[in-house]
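Researcher: I'm comparing several assemblies side by side, and this is the next one on my list. It has 472 residues spread over two chains. Same procedure as the others: predict the full complex and return the structure.
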Amino acid sequence: MLSKRIIPCLDVRDGRTTKGVRFEANVDIGDPVAMARRYYEEGADEIVFYDITASHQRRAIMLDVVRQVADTIFIPFSVGGGIRSLEEMRAVLLAGAEKVSVNSAAVRSPEIIARGADAFGSQCIVLGMDVKQVGVREGIPSGYEVVIDGGRVYTGIDALQWALKAQGLGAGEICLNSIDADGTRQGYELTLTALISGQVSIPVIASGGAGEPEHLRDALLQGRADAVLIASMVHFGTHSIAGLKSYLHACGIPVRRSW
Amino acid sequence: MIAIIDYNAGNLASVARAVAHLGFACTVTHDPEMIRRAERIIFPGVGAAGAAMDSLRRLGIDAVLRERSACGTPLLGICLGSQVILEHSDENDTPCLGLLAGRARAFPAAMRSPDGTPLKIPHMGWNRIGRRRDHPLFEGIGPEDEFYFVHSFYPVPEHPEEVLGVTGHGVEFASVIGRGRLVATQFHLEKSGRPGLRMLRNFCAGFGGERPC
């Protein structure tokens, strides 16, 4: 039986890991390569990196981080953040990432999903979705709207319709982030997670809001997620990945416990 | 020297990194002569069977692989590599290498787990191996160890004795197959943490002995 995955997420700015709340007020919390190694050794099933570097050297800095990470850890990891072209995807994959995630660029040009899947295989292409609850209205039948550019821009696109469209274009996985829950540590958006995960046939990673072990359990059971993204709860030492896995195992959820 | 076959089939760098991390000399190549001279061959791959076979034929690697396999060069297929060593893949209805009898099949549509929840395709994530045969590849590997999978097709060897290990995802499928010095894993041992590296080391350090040619 497939284990549910626990995936630490590292936001990387100028080659350093940072953590903010609702995309604001970031603080430096360490070297991404050292953190990736620690999480690898502590039993992370996968690692996600988001490049939030704003400078002109952003690509070179991140590719250097990716290469160092690839030499250090031997589990899958993905890289996202501002990836707009096939060339940028290729550079990240050649540097050693297993997967790339596209978010705002895919909303603007959905064909990047298909082109990426054709060139590198669906298993490489993760659709990152930032979603806000806006209530059911015309054009948004699910009541959840896709937002882009770090949650600042509303797209008028229904979250469920977008997830299904991206799957049809060849996305191999969806990382579903609730902007409402992100950074609150009050739990994942379970209704949204269950809605999307129940309708698509590709794996869904729940993201945004993890603060307590119970939140992970709820996202995996009620939310029917295939994996959970976590950040502050492990970045600040409040919880360990091994402890979270013991808890989930005790809840009857299959997790990888030998590493 | 270990040859890691480069046929434009995805993330070869990660296999090379893992082999180098273990301290073995390797080269990523599509040169048939280098592959012919290699002490061991690793045959990785992600992507589709049709494109992979096209590349192998175009580069003349298909013939070398058949020759080296017949001569007993230790050969490790990974992921797509475990499918195209069979005779046929249902993906793109592709005739394959035929190093082992059998074919690659797609997971059935609309599979459900025992509790009724739909199972997703691709089979993506960590899963266990049920051992069917003893094999040096399994040295140091425990029953709790898990390995990283990403695939929508899986190998179905014709001869049951060539199934070395099995994994469950809706159906029970062969996740480790082989005969003699030819072995293949449907999972990515280069991305499977400690147990994956151990298995890779078992291949890189073991399977020695005289070769007939």
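Model: For your comparison table: The domain at 5-250 of chain A is CATH 3.20.20.70 (TIM Barrel).
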